[in-house]
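ARCHIVE CARD
CATEGORY: sequence design from structure
SOURCE FIELD: tokenized fold
FIELD CONTENT:
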């Protein structure tokens, strides 16, 4: 009973990074933007030439091959995340995360040492393009902080007052 965009959004929310090429009869700019924002890697409108479809699939596979070699392990200090096994380890200790916590940490690890705003987290992790005036981010950040920082010598996840959060190995 779900449409393709809802399925795609659900896959991305669950952390699935499989390359997706949307094939659609909807060709308006707004339709393409919705598809890409839902998590598609590319968007092709019908009718299309088979040679273009083939070239776009080849391009996605090239991108995925480069990405899989470079981005299968993310690090910040003594914290590592293996995207293939979906395993998080800090100082040799395994950390079990819920799917949304995993997505949140992955988002932060891809932006180590950068200040990440609440709006960026809402869009990048939850897929919201508006602020629903909820404390969902605060709750998830708090839970993540407990799991990755509690019991370790140094905190990695910092609050940047008035701006957002930063994942950093620096003091």
């Amino acid at each position: 009973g779900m449409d393709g965009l809802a399925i795609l959004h659900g896959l991305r929310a669950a952390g699935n990074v499989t390359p997706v090429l949307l094939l659609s009869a909807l060709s308006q700019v707004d339709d393409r933007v919705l598809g890409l924002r839902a998590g598609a890697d590319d968007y092709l409108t019908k009718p299309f030439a088979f040679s273009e479809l083939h070239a776009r699939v080849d391009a996605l596979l090239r991108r995925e091959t480069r990405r899989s070699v470079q981005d299968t392990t993310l690090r910040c200090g003594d914290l590592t995340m293996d995207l293939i096994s979906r395993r998080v380890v800090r100082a040799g200790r395994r950390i079990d995360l819920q799917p949304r916590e995993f997505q949140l940490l992955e988002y932060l690890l891809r932006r180590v040492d950068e200040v990440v705003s609440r709006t960026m987290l809402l869009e990048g992790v939850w897929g919201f393009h508006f602020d629903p005036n909820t404390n969902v981010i605060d709750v998830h950040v708090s839970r993540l902080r407990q799991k990755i920082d509690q019991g370790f010598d140094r905190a990695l996840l910092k609050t940047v007052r008035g701006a957002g959060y930063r994942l950093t190995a620096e003091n």
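CARD ANNOTATION: The mean pLDDT is 89. The first helix runs from residue 4 to 13.
SHELF: design records, drawer C
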